[in-house]
């Protein structure tokens, strides 16, 4: 289709500037000539790092190439009227200390428990009134066992023990996320005292192991429901 010169100008003028270009243009007005620290990329790691730096009085700028900040944790309206999570939407690994330090709730963070947390439809033909099978898992253990027993009664029976095992693993590993890694240099070459000190990193793991009964004697009720749901951190809010 041909367009007259004036028509074309109007069309170009009306066409929206790409969102990232508009965002960058608007941000230019806020830029200072100098910063103490610059973070490239406004994913959640960059944002958290920048927030901590700024709180310490380090004058910090975050540069993001996209028009939205949040990286993989962003929810975007990709199709008008429909919002999509780009990838990362579970907060199980977000450290509680960060919630508190950055006052995330005060800034509008709301958590939603995912229940059911997993739906797996099977690629099979339904016959007559029989619909294709699927597996739906949530926080109700009895319901989960019913679901699993469609495929394997044995697995359904073992599921509470599996959950308890996974919860126990999570409880043991969780404190390590806030601990500095083992100082391998000190561990390999240090004095006996330095070696022992370097192993203190593993204290939470040892404590978790010591404070919980062996797997065989545990029942699922003994563990917080859904530290890891169905072995998947995707069960977390
Ligand atoms: C499919 C999938 C599902 C996941 N699900 C979860 C989950 O449910 N829960 C969870 O905790 N983790 C999840 N993760 C992991 C999580 O997404 C990553 O650990 C997290 O996004 C890393 O954060 P980040 O800030 O380091 O990087 P990103 O989130 O990748 O952010 C990087 C940012 O930097 C920008 N950038 C890159 N290069 C430049 C540049 N040169 N200049 C300017 N800006 C730049 C990018 O545009 C982006 O905004 C998932 C990952 C994937 C792939």
N-to-C order of helices and strands? HHEHEEEHEEHHHHH
- Give the count of structural domains: 2
Overall, the morphology is flat
What is the distance, rounded to the nearest whole angstrom, between the alpha carbons of the first and last residues? Answer: 51 Å
Note poorly predicted spans. 1-14, 215-237
- Give the rounded overall mean pLDDT: 80
Strand arrangement, major sheet: 1-2
Largest sheet: 2 strands, parallel
Strand percentage lies at 5-15%
The distinct bound ligands, ions and cofactors come out as: flavin-adenine dinucleotide
Task: Give the radius of gyration.
Answer: 26 Å
Number of strands: 6
Structural class: alpha+beta
Helical content (DSSP H or I, runs of 4+): 25-40%
Task: Quickly count the helices.
Answer: 9
Family: Belongs to the carotenoid/retinoid oxidoreductase family.
Pfam families: NAD_binding_8 (PF13450)
Biased composition (Polar residues): 216-237
Region (Disordered): 210-237
């Amino acid at each position: 289709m041909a367009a007259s010169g004036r028509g074309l100008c109007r069309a170009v003028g009306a066409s929206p500037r790409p969102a990232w270009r508009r965002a960058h243009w608007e941000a230019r007005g806020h830029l200072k000539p100098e910063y103490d620290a610059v973070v490239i990329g406004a994913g959640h790691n960059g944002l958290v790092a920048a927030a901590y730096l700024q709180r310490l009085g380090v004058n910090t700028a975050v540069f993001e190439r996209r028009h939205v900040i949040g990286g993989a944790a962003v929810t975007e309206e990709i199709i008008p009227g429909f919002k999509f999570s780009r990838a990362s939407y579970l907060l199980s690994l977000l450290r509680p200390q960060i919630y508190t330090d950055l006052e995330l709730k005060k800034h509008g963070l709301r958590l939603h428990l995912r229940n059911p947390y997993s739906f797996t439809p099977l690629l099979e033909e339904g016959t007559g009134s029989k619909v294709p099978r699927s597996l739906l898992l949530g926080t109700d253990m009895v319901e989960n066992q019913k679901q699993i027993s469609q495929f394997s009664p044995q697995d359904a029976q073992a599921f509470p023990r599996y959950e308890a095992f996974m919860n126990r693993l999570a409880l043991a590993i969780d404190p390590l996320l806030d601990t500095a890694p083992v100082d391998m240099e000190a561990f390999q070459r240090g004095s006996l005292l330095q070696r022992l000190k370097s192993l203190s990193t593993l204290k939470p793991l040892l404590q978790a192991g010591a404070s919980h009964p062996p797997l065989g004697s545990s029942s699922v009720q003994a563990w917080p429901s859904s530290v890891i749901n169905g072995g998947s951190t995707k069960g977390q809010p």
